[in-house]
Amino acid sequence: MSKRKSKETSSVNGECISQVQRILRERFCHQCPNGKLFGVQLQYKHLLELLKRTTIHGESNSALIIGPRGSGKTMLLNHVLKELMEVKQVRENLLQVHLNGLLQTNDKIALKEITRQLQMENVVGDKVFVSMNFLLLF
Question: Which domain holds residue 75?
């Protein structure tokens, strides 16, 4: 094999590897819901309507999505959020906070992460905290 063909092959392989890495990174980080939903159309419709009412009409709703590991809970939520973000009125009102149960192990840590993601480090409820020490005491 000539050196020229070897370089072309390695550059093509490098591009393919880069594409595979990008796709895997997106799927592992839940950045794009590419998979199709099977057998959860009823749950999809119910969750979509619940979150629409919450964001558009300001209803105070909660949803608990439970199921075995790998059953599609996160994929269902990601598909619903993707469709919701296409609606202008929802997009303007929706705030997303992502918590990880392995990292945010108690209420205090979860509250700190929520305020960090909402960029409200010194505002919780109607209280304004001067420093992080006051927030930790809260």
Answer: 34-94
